[in-house]
Amino acid sequence: MRYQRPKGTQDILPEEAPRWRFVERTFRDICRRFGYSEIRTPIFEETELFVRSVGEDTDIVSKEMYTFEDKGGRSLTLRAEGTAPAVRAFVEENLQGQDRERLVKLYYIAPIFRQDKPQAGRYRQHHQAGIEAIGSPEPAVDAEVIDLALSFYRALGIEGTRLLINSVGCPVCAPGYVDELRASVADSVEHMCRDCRRRYDTNPLRLLDCKEETCRRVLDNAPTMLDSLCGECAEHFAGLREHLEALDIAYEIDTRIVRGLDYYTKTAFEFRHDALGAQDSIGGGGRYDGLVEQCGGPAIPGVGLGIGIERVLLVREALGLADEEQPREGSFIVTIGDEAWLPGYRLLHDLRGAGVKAEIDYRRRSIRAQMRYADAQGYLNAVILGGDEIARGIATVRDMLSGEQEEVPLEALAEHLKGDAQE
Ligand SMILES: [Zn+2]
Ligand SMILES: [Zn+2]
Fold first, then answer.
1. Closest-lying ligand to the alpha carbon of 171?
2. Closest ligand to 194 CA?
3. Which option is the CATH number for 17-173+229-318: 3.40.50.620, 3.30.930.10, 3.30.420.40, 3.40.30.10?
4. Quick one: how far is CA 319 from the chain centroid?
5. Ligand 2 center to residue 406 CA distance, Å?
6. Closest Cα partner for 28 from 144, 148, 112?
7. Ligand nearest to the CA of 197
8. How far is the CA of 267 from the centre of ligand 1 (A)?
């Protein structure tokens, strides 16, 4: 019996892992600069958390979650999105302390599980780099979240990212708009796709982001949320634009950006990149002023962002951004003859213990084969050990690039090699 990985999942192989590490390292560094601290939440949560926060009628909850019952009869769900677990932890662990207006800034890099149709760059286990800024209603914080994402893309060498912004209003103004929207498409709803016919009843805002051409045409003349914003939401949206402009961040207003989750209020935004073709979203997020309260906490506003790591890697590939050059590092111990084997094996242990990356050839091949292998594997130097070296208490250290050799006393070897280490 041969096994295959589950549909829609991927193996990240050793040759690909450095690309992932580069993206993750860059994200951590940007988060550090912006003052966000890492949070790691469980890979599964109570199902109710996602149902209540993301919304029963969303695609995520209605058809994409990996939900199972554990042996105790509890309904659990693999992390279906990043914000709800972070907000759950924020409330449960009282991360804000006594100061109800303190801004708590969190980031995470975590797998997300959704039983979606697998397509290019979309996986049933995909990975997200996300942030949450909880505690402030200020549009300056929305702009900071957007600025962080754009700084991240730039640090990865990705130019040409487009920012689209919208406001989806609040519980004061959104319901009126939803009624207006419904009324405006009522006559045409029978011509819309099956999903939209369902959304018309359950979640009309999602009509706006349907990709079907016929549905898009129906929506062309629909009213926009921006025309229905209440005073507070309109002021907030103006504040967002003002702060983006203060940072020279270019944006497009797109009234169809609604994001597929119920908890968004006011700001909704998305990043797109033309290098990706039709599936061009590389991240997005928005404000969720009611979510903390919905998750059992006090009425505290928040805003956040999620970036798909697979999508970012696809853009980098499409833009031909070269992998970071892997520096040569470490020592390959080349043993000559049986008498050098055990001393070489011991030296391997000692060097590793002293912090040096070291390897040996367990096949005990010829010197030439060992040297060739050390070179192909990217070692910085070869530590050659034969009967003569052992008798004199030294090793011959050969620089793999220049071919230069020097004799180094065994007791000074670890220090000497550590001095050579790159990175
Ligand atoms: Zn409003
Ligand atoms: Zn549709």
1. 1
2. 2
3. 3.30.930.10
4. 19
5. 72
6. 148
7. 2
8. 11
Q: Which residue has the higher pLDDT, 189 or 169?
A: 169
Tell me the whole-structure pTM to 2 decimals: 0.91
Q: Which ligand is in closest contact with the Cα of 212?
A: 2
For residue 177, pLDDT beyond 90? yes
Domain map (residue ranges) of the chain: 17-173+229-318, 331-420
Expressed in angstroms and rounded, the spacing between residue 265 Cα and the centre of ligand 1 is 8
Strand partners, 38: 107
> What is the number of other CB atoms lying within 10 angstroms of the CB of residue 149?
26
Give the whole-angstrom CA distance, residue 258 versus residue 166. Answer: 8
CATH of 331-420, one of 3.40.50.800, 3.40.720.10, 3.30.720.210, 3.10.20.30: 3.40.50.800
Task: Tell how far the Cα of 234 is from the centroid of ligand 1, in angstroms.
Answer: 7
CA distance 152 to 106: 16
Q: Which ligand is nearest to the CA of 169?
A: 1
Distance 281 CA to ligand 2 centre (A): 18
Q: What percent of the chain has pLDDT over 90?
A: 80
